[in-house]
């Protein structure tokens, strides 16, 4: 058995199927190389005496093995909430096991996050104007001011339930979007009066935010953005692992891979949009420096974090915008574009950071024991 253990907190999609199991398999293989046993479990696998039924991957036989064991000392939380019941279950787990070492902390919903990020003057300039939905009439005023807006559920993920509304002419508007199942809604062209009727029928609530739209359409009409991954390395320091472009399918308003988007290298997508290599290099440098600034700021607000996925837009002028930040990012985009070394690094870094955390923990205990002995003398 490996000398060190890393618990991975996950959610069941069904009674027996865990989310992200293929990622956990890869994590287990990389963990073994570093002397770390990866143990996957859900809060529902914890028993009354705090023993836990974990899954460990047996690479020799290509299968997962369930074992009853003690709680792993370090926890890598990969739970995506999706439902309020999951959020409450995970919050209860964290409260009950507050003494465990967690690699990261949950962040806030879109609206709370916007308010927190707006506190920082340097970060504020990268944020699209965002307001909480109050009424259809206020939404229309906001749309007339910005000409393009996105309406998003404040706690949604993966492009679910997002609307894009654009003013095309004096009395002509285009409504596009995805429903809660990520299915593309048929584009709807409407006059102001028709749009008002349609928006009323959608029963929007203060659980939605309204955001200034950034022009993200390519020449073929498809939207695009960039996914930047920044992670803690084996020295406990932030490092940009990589950045890749994402292009949505036809008629889609989002570029998420889960919603049918395709991946392309950052260099290729930037070069497609900007002729000057000097310009693209400047944009890349700005993305990276912003990522470090954002990661450092979020730790001052939420505590220690392990990794962040940042959805970044670059408008036609080359201005950089933050669309969203995710504390439990996927790394699939790098595998899709054939950047296997980046993908490998993206998988390995949480384990390296966990090993570093365990070492810090061990040193702290040794120092405490030494101080206790000194007091006894």
From TrEMBL:
<dbReference type="InterPro" id="IPR011761">
    <property type="entry name" value="ATP-grasp"/>
</dbReference>
<dbReference type="Pfam" id="PF14398">
    <property type="entry name" value="ATPgrasp_YheCD"/>
</dbReference>
<keyword id="KW-0067">ATP-binding</keyword>
<feature type="domain" description="ATP-grasp">
    <location>
        <begin position="114"/>
        <end position="352"/>
    </location>
</feature>
<protein>
    <submittedName>
        <fullName>YheC/YheD family protein</fullName>
    </submittedName>
</protein>
<keyword id="KW-0547">Nucleotide-binding</keyword>
<dbReference type="InterPro" id="IPR026838">
    <property type="entry name" value="YheC/D"/>
</dbReference>
């Amino acid at each position: 058995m490996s000398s060190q253990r890393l618990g991975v907190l996950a959610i069941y999609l069904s009674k027996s199927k865990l989310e992200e199991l293929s990622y956990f398999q890869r994590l287990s293989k990389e963990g073994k190389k570093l002397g770390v046993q990866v143990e996957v479990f859900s809060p529902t696998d914890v028993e009354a005496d705090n023993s836990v039924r974990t899954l460990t991957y047996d690479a020799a036989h290509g299968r997962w093995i369930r074992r009853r064991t003690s709680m792993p000392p370090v926890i890598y939380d990969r739970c995506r909430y999706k439902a309020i019941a999951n959020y409450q279950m995970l919050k209860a787990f964290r409260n009950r096991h507050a003494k465990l070492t967690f690699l990261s902390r949950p962040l806030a919903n879109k609206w709370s996050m916007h308010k927190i990020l707006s506190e920082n003057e340097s970060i504020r300039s990268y944020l699209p104007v965002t307001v909480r939905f109050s009424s259809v009439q206020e939404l229309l005023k906001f749309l007339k001011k910005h000409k393009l807006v996105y309406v998003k559920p404040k706690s949604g993920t993966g492009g679910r339930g997002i609307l894009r509304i654009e003013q095309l002419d004096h009395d002509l508007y285009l409504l596009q979007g995805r429903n809660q199942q990520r299915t593309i809604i048929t584009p709807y062209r409407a006059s102001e009066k028709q749009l008002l009727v349609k928006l009323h029928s959608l029963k929007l609530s203060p659980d939605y935010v309204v955001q200034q739209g950034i022009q993200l359409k390519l020449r073929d009409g498809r939207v695009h953005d960039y996914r930047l991954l920044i992670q803690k390395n084996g020295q406990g320091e932030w490092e940009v692992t990589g950045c890749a472009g994402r292009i949505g399918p036809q008629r889609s308003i989002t570029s998420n891979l889960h919603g049918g988007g395709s991946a392309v290298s950052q260099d290729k997508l930037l070069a497609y949009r900007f002729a000057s290599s000097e310009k693209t290099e400047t944009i890349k440098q700005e993305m990276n420096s912003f990522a470090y600034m954002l990661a450092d700021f979020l730790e001052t607000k939420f505590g220690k974090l392990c990794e962040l996925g940042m959805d970044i837009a670059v408008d036609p002028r080359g201005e950089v915008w933050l669309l969203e930040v995710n504390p439990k990012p996927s790394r699939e985009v790098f595998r899709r574009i054939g950047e296997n070394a980046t993908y490998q690094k993206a998988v390995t870094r949480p384990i390296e950071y966990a090993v570093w955390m365990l070492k810090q923990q061990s040193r702290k205990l040794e120092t405490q024991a030494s101080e206790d002995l000194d007091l006894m003398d």
